[in-house]
Amino acid sequence: MGEKDKVKTQEPKKDYFMDDESKNMDRKPLIESDSYKAAGKLEGKVTLVTGGDSGIGAATAILFAKEGAKVAFTYHSSDEDATRTENRLKEIGAEVLVFKGDVGDESFAEEVISSLTDKWGNIDVLVNHAGEQRYQSSITDIKAEQIDRTYRTNIFSMFYFVKAALNHLSEGASIINTSSITAYKGNPTLMDYSGTNGARVAFTRSLAQNQEILDKKIRVNSVAPGPIWTPLIPSTFPEEALEEFGKDGALGRPGEAYELAPAYVYLASDDSSYVTGQTIHVNGGVIVNG
């Protein structure tokens, strides 16, 4: 069976599984697979996913809903993506809260946590996923505004949401940060983005050892995606770079968002009760020794 046929066997049934930004893409990103079997691993848990309207964030939110969780998610600007994901979560049967705003703004993080906890009480799972990247072939093209924006979205937001949520995290809660293979390999055209992901890994390891976190038995881990086919990829990279995207791993192809989401379920659930300060590498077989 060829690579193209393998992808076809996993195609979802409904168009709203596709991200709004991907309408004109030759290859559609997939955020849900019919092959997943839920087991109630997050029954009744209160979960929050930043950047949960599309891509990996939406795929994670959908599996959390399938596992019985209440799901809140944030998004920045795509109302259509957010509505589609919200409707899908409700179709699954989840209680849902949706927040629109800038995760790089501390006051937004405080508003989200306040509204969520007023509605649902304590938080059991916090997923810091929201992020952004911009392709630049030369460091001289990376302006101060871009650096500030990338770090504000990708790393400042993690501090803001953890700070705002800390007093509302239940004992034994899970914090999951999305990092990236670029934290370990680097990327010459995503230098500021790679830098933020190195910071995300260091933040994860440091927070996992923090005494306030340990006192509440909170586990802190990260997931480091490799080349995953989401709308961010064709909108970020020049067309000539897309042809080789994801082909350097052992599996020889980019991954799909739905292939990432089970890692988040594992880290959110009691299945990972002895795992903290760690990173799960879901990257198609790229060895990073990290």
From TrEMBL:
Superkingdom, taxonomy of origin: Bacteria
GO molecular-function terms, A-Z: oxidoreductase activity, acting on CH-OH group of donors
Record keywords: Oxidoreductase
GO biological process, alphabetically ordered: bile acid metabolic process
InterPro entries named among the record's database cross-references: NAD(P)-bd_dom_sf, SDR_fam
Any one Pfam family match given in the protein's UniProt record, by short name: adh_short_C2
Region named Disordered: 1-24
Oxidoreductase in keyword set: yes
Family to which the UniProt record says this protein belongs: Belongs to the short-chain dehydrogenases/reductases (SDR) family.
Protein's name according to its UniProt entry: NAD(P)-dependent dehydrogenase, short-chain alcohol dehydrogenase family
Organism: Alkalibacterium pelagium
